[in-house]
Every structure is written in C-alpha cells, then in structure tokens.
Amino acid sequence: MSCTAEIQAAFILSSIVTFFSGLFILLTSRLIWRGIEKRQKSHRHSRSLSFQGAFRDRIEMLLSAQTFVGQVLVILVFVLSIGSLVIYFINSTDPVRSCSSYQDKTIPIDLTFNAFFSFYFGLRFVAADDKVKFWLEMNSIVDIFTIPPTFISYYLKSNWLGLRFLRALRLLELPQILQILRAIRTSNSVKFSKLLSIILSTWFTAAGFIHLVENSGDPWLKGRNSQNISYFESIYLVMATTSTVGFGDVVAKTSLGRTFIIFFTLGSLVLFANYIPEMVELFANKRKYTSSYEVVKGKKFIVVCGNITVDSVTAFLRNFLRRKAGEINTEIVFLGEVPPSLELETIFKCYMAYTTFVSGSALKWEDLRRVAVDSAEACLIIANPLCSDSQAEDTSNIMRVLSIKNYYPNTRVIIQILQSHNKVFLPKIPSWNWNSGDNIICFAELKLGFIAQGCLVPGLCTFLTSLFVEQNKKICPKVPWQKHFFSGLKNKILTQRLSDDFAGMSFPDVSRICFVKMHLMLIAIEHKSVCHGYCGLILNPSAQVKLLKNTLGFFIAESAKDVKRAFFYCAICHSDVYTPELIEKCNCRSKNHRHMAGNCTLRLSLTLHLWVWPRKGGGPSLKRKCPFGIYEMEQDHLDNTGMFHWCRATPLDKMILKRTDKSKHEFRNHIVACVFGDAHSTLMGLRNFVMPLRASNYTRKELKDIVFVGSLDYLQREWRFLRNFPQIYFLPGSALYSGDLHAVNIEECSMCAVLSSPSKSSSSPTLVDTEPIMATLNIGSLQISCCAQTPSEPQCGGCFSRNPRKSQYRRIPIITELKNPSNIHFIEQLGGMEGNFSGTSLHLSTSFATGTVFSGSFLDSLLATAFYNYHVLELLQMLVTGGISSQLEQHLDKEKYYGLNDNSCTVLSRSSRCKLGLLSLNQTILSDIQPRRTFGQIFCGSLDRLGVLCLGLYRMIDDEEFVITRPENEFRLLPSDLVFCAIPFSTSYYKKDISSPNLYDNINIVPLSEDTSQI
C-alpha cells in the first residue's frame, strides 16, 4: 500500500523530535545543575558517589570490550546492526513511497533488533561522562534516527524505509571487531580494514540517501520530479561519482539529489585521491613482496638483511656482481622490513636476474622461513655507517644474528658492525663458528686502522686501500704518473693453494720463484702452527719456516687466472720456464717430493736464551742473548696477548697538555690526531686508532708520541679505553684554531690525522665532512720552513715552492678522513700535483694517489669479499689492526681459558711478526742491493740478502709522492723512489755509522745446532 505524506512525516518527525528534545533537555539540565552547584555548597554523599562510580566503571568496562561479556556485547551489537542493514536491503526492493504491511515477517525481527539497540543506547548514555557530547556522537545519531521509527511502525501497523540506511555507518566499527576476534594482527591488515570500512559505509549511506530522495521527489513539488531508481542503481551512481567519472546513464533528477551530489563529489575527490591508491598499494605490495622465496635445487642463493636502502643495495650489488656474467651463479634475496621505494624497485628490476625482494624481518622466524635461511649459502647483514645512533644500529644487527642462529644454528653469518666494542657479543653466541665462515666486518676497527697505518708509513693507507677498490671507470691517463698509478689500481689481494712441489721450501725461495717465473707477488701464507696451536696467517715468514702441502698463499695480482700458475707449477716440467703464460697444468704424475714434507720446522739457536721476567700489567719483558751481544727490549711491557705495548694506567690530568707548557713538551716526530666531538657525541673508538700505533712488532724506541687535539669532554670519555697505552697526550682545543696546532708543535710532526666527526644527523650528505674539510684547509695553509723538517723522513720530506722567488716551504704531512667520498673536490686543490683525473671520484683523485685522504666508503665491498673469500678479509685485518685477526682472537680466547698466556714462545713470536715500512733506496739497507735499476732486481736482492719483501713504490713527482702498487718486474726505478716493504722485526733498516764494524743494527736468529723445534 502507498504511504501518505502524513505517515512519512510521522516517521521522520519522530527522530527529529527525539534528537532536538533530548538535546534541549540535556542542555537545560546542565545549566540547572551548574546553577545549583553555585548556590549550594553542601557535601555530596560519599556513599552514593561510590555506588554511582562503581556502577559506571562496570558499564565502561563492559562497553570497552575489556571483559569477555563486553566483547560478546560489542560483537553482538555489530552483528545485529549488519542484520538490520540487510533487512533494509531486502525492503528496498519495494517502492520507497509504499508502506509494507505489518504482516511482513522482517518487521518484527527488525523491531527486536532495535529493542536491543535501545538497551545498548541506554548503557552508553549512563556510562557517558559528557551527556551532550554523547548525544552528538555519530553512533548516537544513527540510533536516534533509526530506533524511534521502528516503534512508530509498531504503533501505525506499517513500515517505511525512511532513514534506516544510516545503519551502514556501523561498518566503521569493523576494524575494532576484527581486532577483538584476532582476525587481523599486522598494521597493514588494520590499515586495510579501516580503509575498507570507511569506503563501504560512505557508499552505502550515500546510496541510501540518493535512493530515498530520488524515489520520493522534492517535498515542495510533492514528488512530481521523482524517479524509480533501485538501491543498486543508487550505489552505481555513488561509485561513479566517487571515481569522478560520472557516466551519465544514471543521474539525479531531484534538487535535493543534485545538491547532495555536488557536495559528495567534493568529498569524493579527497576520498578517492587518498584512500583508493593506498588500498591498491596495499594489495600490490602484499601480492608482490609477501610471498615466500622458492628454493630451486642446485641453485645457490644468499640472504641480505639489515639496512636495505638505495645506497647500500647499490654498493653491495656493484661489488658482489663485479665478476663476469658467466661466473655469477648465486642469487641474492633481500629481506627488507619496509617495502622498497620506487628508486629501489628500479634497481631490483635492473638486476632482476640476480635479485629477489621479500618483505619481512630477520627478527621473526616466520620471515626467516619464507626466505629459506636454512638453505642459504650465507646470511649477510648490512649496517648503516651514516646512522645517527651507531649503538642502536649495532644492537639491532646483533639481535638479527641471534635470531638467525637460533632459527638455524648452521647458517653462515657475515655481519657489519660499526663500533668495535660490540664485536665481543657475537662470538659469545653458542652457534657462532669462525671455521664455518662466520665473520665480522668492524667499520671503526678497519677505518681507524687504515688511518693509523697511514700515520706510521706515509702512503700506506692508499697502498692498502687500492688493493680492495674495484675501479670500473675507464680512464685515459694524460701524464706518466697517472699511467703508473692507474696501472697499480688493477692489482688485488688474491688467494690460491700452492703447488705441492713447494712443500719443504722456505717462503723467500717460493716467493722468488713466483715473482721471477710467474710474475706473481706472494706476500703471505696460511700456516699451521704446532707450538702456538692455531692456524694463522704469516706475512713474509722467515727462511726458517718451511711450507707444507696444500698451503694457502696470498698474492698481489691482477686476476685469479694469473695466480692459478702457482697451483699448476711443477718443479720438473717448469724448471726452465720463465714465461708466465707457459706455466699451465701439466700431466706429470711423478710428484714424489724431493723436499721434506710434513710439518715445517723453525731452527732456533740453542744459544738463544729466553728469560721471562715477571709481567708488569700482563706483558713480558724479554731479554735476548745472541752472538753479537745482548739485545734487550728495554722495559717493553706488553699486554696479555703480547700484541701491543702496555703501561700502567695514568691519571688523565697528567696527560692533558696546556698551551702555556709548550716548552715542557717539545714534541718531535710525533703523530697529531685532530678529533671532533663533544660530551654527547657517539664514541668513535679511538682505541682502534691507537692499537696499530702501539703494536709490539715495533720496539719501544720506535713508538711515536700521539697527541689528540679536541674537546676535553669527548676525550675524557675515550680515555678509559686508552689509559693503558704509553705516550698518549691530550690538548683541549680545536684543529680549526691555528694556535692549538702550534701548541702541539705540528710543524715537527711526522703525520697529522684529521678524523671525521662522530655520527650525527645532517640535512645534506655534503655537510657531514664540514669540520674535517675546514681543519684540512687550516692545516694546509700553515707555511713551515724546510729547516723544520722532521727527522723521520729525511728521505721523503720534500720542499715545494709556489713561487721560486720566495722562500721554500714544506707541507705538513696530513691524512684526512672523509665520510662522503664525493666531498673530495673540496680539498683536491691541496693535492699539489698536475694532471688531475676527470671527475670527482675519490680513488682517482691526486689526494688519494698521494696518500693524503681516506674514506671508509669502500668497506662496503668487504661484505662481498668476505663471502667469496674470507681469507682475504683475515689478511686485511692482520695488516690494518696491528696483527690481530679473527683466528688469533679465537686462539687468544682459548689461551686465556686454558691459562696458556704465559708461554714465552707465544709471546716472542707475536712480537716478532713483520712490520710494514717505507725504505729509501739510498739511506737504508736497500742501498747495498746491487744491481737495483728495476723493481724486480730490488725485490729479489732484498728478499735474498735481507729477508725484506718489497711490495710497491712511493714515487716523487712535482714535489709530491704518489703510490704505485705492485710495479712490473722490469719497472725502472728512480733514485728518489721509496719502497713499501714488509720488514722482519729483527731488522733495523737504517744504516749505522759507516765506521762501525756492524753495518746494520740487526737482530739475527741463526741456527747453531742441528736440533730443531717444531712449530
């Protein structure tokens, strides 16, 4: 039957009257109550208040779903609201202007639902603190405009659709209901359910309003402009409007409908522009990055997690995939905690043949299962060296290692650590295993170790760095020095098992054969020591160490193909071959070794007596008696490991210098370290800088004073890690102030190191190096007369003159650390050499070629190096840190555990390891090597006569020295050339007085007996 206008008005007015009358009553009651409170100051009954408060608290607990009954109540209200909405959908199939008979079975069901809604409305009203605010809430408005018409329908015995479409707004509570049911747990699912509920409730409510006004017509026209439109068509119109398309097949004809569409279109612009793309992104990311990695039998893969950013991924892929395309058979699975950016997605698409991205966290076992960590070759964890909180970065990465090792203990883990003191936690993990390839790349340890080596030996920092830098850019050298320098950059550290024909031979003999016949430079071997109980690396072993079968050799060479010759070498087939290309795999089967096989021997003189005096602070004092007299390590107190010089802790105030006491501290041939930091800066770990400078393979007399210039607040925090190292001083001040530099006698220093400031947030990557750059410019501007030349480098200290008419000055030797390598152009002008390479690459700059700048950015490449060949990383750590490697650390831990650290043989051997130095051809022991016109001649002569291993050259051009890594055998030498060498500990490389019967100050350990001692 048809609903008259009076019946429709009764339904609508019932809700309007209820809303406004209730609001009026609440506002009036509030005003009256406030007036009563002002007039009467009587005390309320505490018992009544206590009862009301307890009752209200119970209702609030019920409505907030904090109890099981409350959860059931909230879920029931939502389900009944959806049920009432479904009844509306069913009734909407009838014409809007018609009233359904009370015989309709849906009417009593809907009446029952609304009776329950009335009860729930009453509970909410009682629990509300602010009744007026409650009355104006959306859920309250929905109840007010849907519940009264239901009771009117019971009174009138007829039902009308009216505003029952407002029940669709209850869909906004869908996320809360799903969380109560624990159907959603992740943030993405909560976000998606919220977006879905907003869109659906908006569509259904707007469609209900359009359905009502279009079927009823404008009231003032008494329905003459109405049109028959179904609820589905109304939804279609609303969706077309939301998408801002508007096809025009279904349109609003009433004035109310069109006015609503105008405002709804404006709202749709916001809704569609903000929510729909976000939903699409959620869908796309879920499908794209939440799937599991499928393991293919026979195909190797690694998992990379941690700091997955554009810069870190680019650097890692550049180094990991630097091999030829046919040689890469390992896929890379990146496990990132956030979806990749568009730029990162582009990188993955460029390397889609090798890379896969999976969204997840290494801290969750479910995500580790999805990337199949238990089947991976290794798990690599990348750190962010530019983060503002390095401690938090290290802690999170250590937790990732712990999670991975707990999930699958046999997983090989290679981790980057920023601060060295955090390394100690990793070996404590029960399943951590150095022997299976687990490794730690400590940025602070390596970075400061490189700089320390550059302070000990000018140019050595560049020499070592060039062995690990991969240069892919094509360069056209313009001047000769560029050709020599760039040619040296092609050499790398490579490993290769040596031919068994070398077994029983001494290292100098094998190194000479490799150099002469194969054009390979063998610098170190992996040696199994019986006396020491561990397998470690030895740089330039003495002639008394004999090689074993299957010995691993370390070479400086250009390609792995070249070093294969050391494995193919046959003493029979290749005895007369001096062309490297002809040394190939032979078919010779007569490998009966003519040399002594088995354990190598070290012959020690029986007249070499060792007395171990009581340790002072854990270090031994050793006195040696040899045929030439007594050589005593004067009070050489070493630490428990025997690796570093040690002293008793000194109060900090005694090590602090004052500008007024300059005459008291006339430093000369010392090292100045410029430090930037304050009381709140992250500690950079200056201990890692000091340890290589206090290595025990340098005698106490060879140690140089170290003077730190920086904030006292910062240096005080570092002092507890430095107080047991001798000859360390602090000057409170700044390298930006020339007066502080002169106070430490910088004009007499052997090297000035400018260390980058600790990690701090910066708006621009360029600004992270502001202080080191300004300090470098300040130091470079100091003009020091040549007469103030330091005694440590008479052979290499050169004077330069910008203008021949003016007096000559020399540069203060300096090495600057840059966090951002692209900042090299700010200090490149101080290089002093002509013929710069084009571009701003740090490793192609003249500053890098001369050894005056260092950047730890290349350390990212060590992650790939450690995966492919962790032995190379071991050698680098040994060279840079003063002799400490992971193998030695493991051995020292065992010694400490078993109480073996008082073994005099162990202490002696650790302090007697080789040291790196820079020797002149004229003023050192190399002057007696004849002939020495080429690098090959000086290499063979020094190795045969002195046991000194030559590695490279430091050549002077334009009054500046530049590094030449591994020159060719026939490379012509200049009289001014300096030679990078691995020098035995017992050899003093400076000449004594010529009149002296002993030309060199040499400590020789020679065999005087046939007895041997096993190593």
UniProtKB/TrEMBL annotation:
Regions crossing the membrane: 12-33, 68-91, 111-128, 195-214, 234-252, 259-277
Predominant localisation class: membrane
Localization of this protein: Cell membrane
InterPro entries according to UniProt: Ion_trans_dom, K_chnl_BK_asu, K_chnl_Slo-like, RCK_N, Slowpoke-like_C
Catalysis: reaction(s): K(+)(in) = K(+)(out)
GO cellular component, one term: plasma membrane
PROSITE patterns attached to this UniProt entry: RCK_N
Keyword Transmembrane helix annotated: yes
Cell membrane listed as a keyword: yes
Assigned keywords, A-Z: Cell membrane, Ion channel, Ion transport, Membrane, Potassium, Potassium channel, Potassium transport, Transmembrane, Transmembrane helix, Transport, Voltage-gated channel
Domain RCK N-terminal: 299-441, 668-840
Signal peptide: none
Membrane topology note: Multi-pass membrane protein
One function term, GO molecular function aspect: potassium channel activity
Gene3D superfamilies: 1.10.287.70, NAD(P)-binding Rossmann-like Domain
Protein's job: Testis-specific potassium channel activated by both intracellular pH and membrane voltage that mediates export of K(+). Represents the primary spermatozoan K(+) current. The channel underlies a pH-triggered membrane hyperpolarization during the process of sperm capacitation, as sperm encounter the alkaline environment near the ovum in the female reproductive tract, thereby playing an essential for male fertility.
Protein name per its UniProtKB record: Potassium channel subfamily U member 1
